[in-house]
Amino acid sequence: MRNKVTMTVDGLEISVPAGTTVLDACLDNGIYIPNLCHLDGMEHPPASCRLCLVEVDGMRGPVTSCTLAAVDGMVVHTNTDEVRELQKLAFRMLVSCNQGNCRVCMANKRCDLQQIAKFLHLPLRTKQMRHIPKDVPEVLTDHPCIVYEPNKCVLCGRCVYVCERRGNPFSLSFANRGFNTIVTFFGSEAEGVEDACRDCRACVDICPVGALSFADERERHLRLVEAGKGRRKAG
Amino acid sequence: MARPTELLASLAAPARNEWGKIRQPERPLITVGNATCGRAAGSGDTIAGFREALAEKGIGADIRTVGCMGHCYAEPLVTIHYPGFPPLLYQKIGAGEARVLVNSFLVAGEDPCFEYLIGALEPNDTFPTLMDYPRYLYEKRLIMEHCGVIEPGSIDQYLAVGGYRALARALEQGGERVVEEITAAKLRGRGGAGFPAGIKWEIARNAAGTPKTVICNGDEGDPGAYMDRTLMESNPHQVLEGLAIAALAIGAERALLYIRAEYPLAVEMVEKAITDAGERGLLGKNILDSGFDLEVEVFKGSGAFVCGEETALIQSLEGKRGMPQHRPPYPAVVGLDGNPTVINNVKTLSTVPLIINHGSDWFRGIGTEDTPGTAIFSVVGEVEYPGLVEVPMGTTLRHLIDEICGGIAGGREFKAVQIGGPSGGCLPASELDTPIDFDSLRRAGAMMGSGGMVVMNDSACMVEVSRYFIDFTQKESCGKCTFCRIGTRHLLDILTDLTKGRATEEDLDELKELSAGIIKGSLCSLGKTAPNPVLTTMRFFMDEYLAHVRERRCPACMCRELTAYYIDLEACARGCDACVACCPTEAIFTTSNRKKAIDQEKCVKCGECVYACPPEYDAVRKVSPPYLVPDQGVVPLGKDEATEGGEDDA
């Protein structure tokens, strides 16, 4: 077949359509590579989470698989020591500034961080690294109906990407620099934002870690958690 | 149709005539260095001082403002052309000195004020010339040849010294020939990476997509570096000429200069230069009647260090947040608006006209085999003569620091030199014989960078220095990728603990592990090079790190928490109050024998008293760790009697 390329991943031969990224090729064939910032069909992957590293024969050092097109005859290794070391380090860094209170989090049990932790056999609260929270408020409520929790956010940028793709007149973007970088809503005071955002939901639904949520849903969730705790205590 | 070189010759002839008159004036001519550095040193007052004094004495003299010669230690710099004398260069001329010069020299041409004189610009029988000084002798001024000599605002003066000749020649040769020449010259990008400019141009020339763009990267942001600013302020036309040649070489129709908004004078000078060159037909439509069009514009950067990274720079130009993108695709193939874009540093572009004029063979004859040409460094810090220095590649660091820049100031010891800005490394005295070129510096653990060089003496704590640079990079990180955003913050946290004496030996391992990870894992060069200051200081100054951990001691007595001040009673002079007056927390008190002592509880360790104490006493001592402050048994004045009295009562 002309439009297919065949490559070897961890000793396994797989065939994927030409133009597929190595990350997609692996995920589609049941080989899991940790990733946070990648979305299907991204023309220019941000390659910002630095988790989807692989080693490729003939290339120097680990490379991000989301930015790498699958090529015929490519030999990819997803589980070398160096790859795992870097992935673990990146993961520890991510959770070192993460609140890590999974029990009350809306993303509990469907959180990408939990999945990756399980995959890498790492705890969600790292003892190997200091815990440094971002120097920003714990909860930001600038938006009329969406709540943002900076210390849950892993800054994968998925929300910024989907918001831009929807062509919303007001938009999500990054703000601040360095460690205190956050996601923020520009133009959220404009008229009609609340209705439009409720209809869209894109950013809330795409967030892998539950850092974005609708204020009312979040409140309901927290109430339920409280109630559940009460019930357990009573029981 | 006239050929571009002929057209240019007709433009340059009257300009050269005029320039001749300026250089051999009938009446005195005063030129004042008035670039940013000159202005900061007070050149405005100097000019006013000259004007006033000249008016008082009724002397007809011209005052012209030029750019910067790079001799920052001597600003404000003034050159006086007096009929019958060679042009004379004077240093540190304030308003008062200007008046003296007018009264003693310009009135009758009698006393040329040797006390302010550096030397004559031309060989003569009476005055020492600049070539008698090592600084001038060892420098090789190619790119900066006309900086501080011609008026940056005058296109005629640039034309008179041979300006735009390379552009005219390039127009006749055609783009392909230009790329060949630059490739043959082995010109390497002066922005820091050292990528061959000719190859970059070739890729962009052959890449599909229009319109193509060339961008001059003037987003200089390294702490202590100002080479690009000086070039743009002092000789903007040379940058524009290089930019136009680059555009011709790759077939670009537009050119941009990305200049940081913190450089208002550079923006002003470049914008004026663009207008002037456009009016002469040297930029814009149908340049020198060759049919080549080039629109040139200035874009002001808004103050993010990371926007000097080329993909972030393009994002910024496109109106997006300046965040680096994954490469490939490289901008030379997919750049601004998705089209091929060449981004070159100011110094790279300023070198281009020289290569076209003199040929690639000439250029390869300067510097080293792998890195031909010259390097411009802004040497700052504890050297005798800080400023901009242009030397051939391959010059050793020792030669540059000791001979050209006069060695360490104040008779102190050399400790380290930080090369390549916040992403560079700190090299100790044992590495001083490293030649300056891209590959040698990288091997030594530092990097060429764009040309910032900070020289430190023995009063600098290397842990604090590396903390300072990490603080800079972590603040300037765009926040995009995990390793740079969070990793550098962790580095900072550990380094801060070290400077406060709270770190453990495990933290040192953690520093190394984090650094290695950040280098391997980061997306762009900012992250990939951010740990360099940490790694090089740990490699060369591990003893200092260990002293901070094991003994809670800062060997350089720089880290506040680990240092204490006291006054040596033997050296302190009775009755002197200099330190008391300067202390912001009133921690210094008078002792019973009318000397001074420091209340350690109140002292905030600002070090003001060290400077306030008259040098003839020099009584303030610094010790680390703080418990080394000797118990001198001091009793505050007045308290002793009270105490004795109390004892008597008992």
Describe the structure.
The complex is a heterodimer of chains A (235) and B (650). By secondary structure, chain A is α+β, with helices and mostly antiparallel strands. Chain A has 2 domains: 4-79, Ubiquitin-like (UB roll); 133-234, 2-Layer Sandwich (Alpha-Beta Plaits), CATH 3.30.70. Chain A has helices spanning 22-28, 81-96, 112-120, 158-165, 193-200, 202-206, 215-234; strands spanning 4-9, 12-17, 53-56, 63-64, 75-77, 146-148, 171-175, 182-186, 212-214. The longest helix of chain A is centred in the C-terminal third of the chain and has 20 residues, at 215-234. The relative contact order of chain A is 0.12. Chain B folds into 5 domains: 18-133, Glutaredoxin (3-Layer(aba) Sandwich); 163-364, 3-Layer(aba) Sandwich (Rossmann fold), CATH 3.40.50.11540; 374-460, Ubiquitin-like (UB roll), CATH 3.10.20.600; 463-550, Up-down Bundle (de novo design (two linked rop proteins)); 563-639, Alpha-Beta Plaits (2-Layer Sandwich). In chain B, the strands form 5 sheets. In chain B, strands 2-1-3-4-5 form a 5-stranded mixed β-sheet. Chain B has a 5-stranded mixed β-sheet with strand order 11-10-14-12-13. The relative contact order of chain B is 0.08. The chains are: A alpha+beta (235), B alpha/beta (650). The interface between A and B is medium-sized, with 36 and 30 residues.
Calculate the terminal CA-CA distance of chain A, rounded to whole Å.
Answer: 63 Å
Task: State mean pLDDT of chain A (0 to 100 scale).
Answer: 91
Uncertain ranges of chain A: none
Order of strands across the main sheet of chain B: 2-1-3-4-5
Total strand segments of chain A: 9
Beta-strand residue percentage of chain B: 5-15%
Q: Could you name the CATH class of the largest domain in chain A?
A: Alpha Beta
> How many domain units of chain A?
2
Summarize the structure.
By secondary structure, chain A is α+β, with helices and mostly antiparallel strands. Chain A has 7 helices and 9 strands.
